[in-house]
Amino acid sequence: MTAKKPLLEVKNLHVRVEEREILKGVDLTIKTGEVHAIMGRNGSGKSTLSYTIMGHPRYIVTKGSILFKGEDLLEMSPDQRAKAGLALAFQYPVAIPGVSVSNFVRASVNAVRGKEVPVKEFRIELKAQMKKLGVENEFLSRYINDGFSGGEKKRLEILQLSMLKPMLAVLDETDSGLDIDALKTVSEGINALSAQDTALLLITHYERILTYVKPQFVHVFQDGRIVKSGGADLANELEERGYDWILQELAPSVVA
User: Fold this and answer.
1) pLDDT range class, residue 256, cuts 50, 70, 90
2) Quick one: pLDDT at residue 150?
3) Is beta strand 143-144 parallel, antiparallel or unpaired with respect to 168-172?
């Protein structure tokens, strides 16, 4: 069997925001169809990695590289990255009053696919994805995230990903603010993406979403670096023991 080539290669990545260095040498490789989870405390750099991958202008790369399908991602604009097969689900999706869900999703799909998708074809595809996510028809006429509950916002994020069909989806704390029913529904949508061979980079604080979305790889962030990697069992261990034991491994106390 031919080994899969890397889809995303992050090498010695250093990133600053204004004058503060956030990422301090991140190395990460993701192949097609793989599910990677990144866990860590607040402020450890997890979200910075996601925004840097997507090309947010506030995050300045000072050293290192990011390759996507062998191409230099840092030379691409955010819209070029989306067209190349990258997508991000936000931790805090913003409201866009006056723009309907239907129009927004169709414009996004047309932009990423580089062609005008016929209305009938788009509607059939959209309704099929909505059914999978338990999204009601009236959802389409509502304005983007305007008055949405936390669960509705995250369903919309996954609905967009399902329509965009990225090669790599970055999910920035998609589980935050979800009750157990919404978490299960959103997780089913995430698993459906993975089943289509979409690679996932799942950023989270907690192990609970990993009960439903099973990663092959778990990475622990601390102070702008990945300090430990392992399999799915590592997430369970973090849930039981917290993060202090990892820090102790990195800097063991000296016994007099």
Assistant:
1) very low
2) 85
3) unpaired
Instruction: Round to whole Å and give the CA distance between 201 and 36.
Output: 5
Of 256 and 227, the structure prediction assigns the larger pLDDT to 227
Q: Residue 256 and residue 192: Cα distance in Å, rounded?
A: 54
Contacts 24+ apart (CB under 8 A), 108-113: 108/160, 108/163, 108/164, 109/163, 109/164, 111/79, 111/82, 111/83, 112/82, 112/83, 112/164
In angstroms, the CA 70 to CA 124 distance is: 34
Assess contact for 15 and 194: CB atoms under 8 A: no
d(CA 211, CA 20): 35
Contact 66, 8 (CB under 8 A): yes
Q: What is the pLDDT of residues 60-84, one digit of tens each?
A: 999 999 999 999 999 999 999 999 9
Neighbour-count burial of 159, counting CB atoms closer than 10 A to its CB (0-12 exposed, 13-18 middle, 19+ buried) = buried
Tell me the two tokens of residue 237.
Answer: 């261990």
- Report the alpha-carbon angle 47-49-51, nearest 5: 70
Q: Which of 168, 166, 159 is nearest to 188 (CA)?
A: 159
Tens digit of each residue's pLDDT (9 = 90 or more) over 179-200: 888 888 889 889 988 888 899 9
pTM (2 d.p.): 0.90
How many residues can be counted in the chain? 256
Other beta carbons less than 10 A from residue 108's beta carbon: 15
